[in-house]
Amino acid sequence: MLRIDEKRPIEQLRIMSVYLKGDFQEGLNAALLKVDNEKAKGRIFTYEMLKGLSVRCYNINFKKEFSFRIGGGADAPIYMLYCIEGHYFHRFSEQDEAKRISRGQNVILSARDNDLNVVTLPKDTALKLSVIIIEKPELPEDLNISKSDLESILDDLYLKVRSKGRFRHFGGINSTIDQYVRVLIENERTDVLGRLITRAAVLNTMVAQLDTHEKNIKGELETSPLSNDELERILSSVKNMQLKLHEQHTIQIFSAKTGISPKKLQMGFRFLFGSSFAKFLKKLRLETARELLETTDLHVSQIANDIGIASNSHFSKIFKEVYGFLPRDYRESVINSSSMFEISYRSSASPFLRDSELSALIENADSKNIERDVSGCLVYYENDFFQILEGPKKNVLTVFNEIKNDTRHSNVEVLWKGPRDKRIFPGAGMMLLSDRTIQTGISTGRRLAFDMRTLILDNDFKGMSSRMFWERIRNRIRTTKVA
């Protein structure tokens, strides 16, 4: 049985991906696990909306029973679960009797401190399940910063449910819950648009589940204001709109492209995204801008132009209204914050790279990384490089820019980049993993705590130079203890 000790939902999913030997795709605060092998076929999606609120969605069929233990320790989270297809089993501890949870049940769970949640997902059962995770609220570092209404509501909910110790509620079927969960589960995207769809669906699902629990009655049958075909047309056109944010977008133009009247479009946008067309478009543009500020070095004026806002002053004004900072100040806050930033990349080594050149490269990189408070791991295998760099964003970007200009390798491909809440490698410098015996003067002499050949064989994947292979290596490294 798999044991998951990691607290963060995305890292929990990463551990599952290694265990299930699936493909793990990561976005900003979101991740998607796809698997199609002897263990399972389907996907599991996780999105961290904000600190203390996450969602995990299963749309998967396990070919072998999959059981895992999760939790333990203090400050157990609250789980709000809703299954629209299939069933699964849950118990709080080894001694507790497992409960079968079926389609349509509104379930709210919270374990006592130090209890384990033991979950069993049956084999040969199509499972479609949403799990909203509410964690203990954290005090803001700056006590002068007020919490949002949503954060305050989550705080109150957590304290109310946790005051009862072990808590388990099994409610009845609610059609409103079913609709919103279906939107959650069918959303595969991990980009800005995917996060906006998920955010609206999570909030709607929470409201419906809590309303059902508080009233303890079944909700009346409610249907979407639009047909499935109309909703699909809206989602398809929104995806196209996201790719062309720099162009003009109005509800009249959107109506002409979808063949849906403006009035019905407004109803559809409120159902899918919880806001009007205009408010959604503004959110989409600003979320895209925020991601570009965090993960690129594009000039603020270029970002404004890319998202379709011609006036830099207007862009700065509305960005500050939403995020509390001017765009330039927001980027500086990310660069100067104590939080970590990661870049993972792969590249091809130059032909006939000698061991002496490789040794010099490694020693130089380790020395510079220590000076810049950058840590990470370098993998050199069959003339391919793979590296994880982590540390203050400005320093990581500086190191990476130097790496891109190094003639000893080519075909540099970024696998992932974005903020991290903590390091996975202890201390600055660089760890080395290779299929060759490389003599180096690295002061720490550190190595990863597992064998390179085992790592390769475990992945059972022939395409050493492919992006998919190195993404799997990255996930294996991130879930392995290092020393």
TrEMBL record:
Pfam family, one: HTH_18
Keyword terms, alphabetized: DNA-binding, Transcription, Transcription regulation
InterPro entries: Acylphosphatase-like_dom_sf, BLUF_domain, Homeodomain-like_sf, HTH_AraC, HTH_AraC-typ_CS, PchR_regulatory_protein, Tscrpt_reg_AraC-type_HTH
Gene3D superfamilies: 3.30.70.100, Homeodomain-like
Domain HTH araC/xylS-type: 235-333
SUPFAM superfamilies with a match to the protein in the record: Acylphosphatase/BLUF domain-like, Homeodomain-like
PROSITE patterns according to UniProt: BLUF, HTH_ARAC_FAMILY_1, HTH_ARAC_FAMILY_2
GO molecular function ontology, one term from the record: sequence-specific DNA binding
Domain spans labelled BLUF: 340-431
Protein name: Helix-turn-helix domain-containing protein
Organism: Pricia antarctica
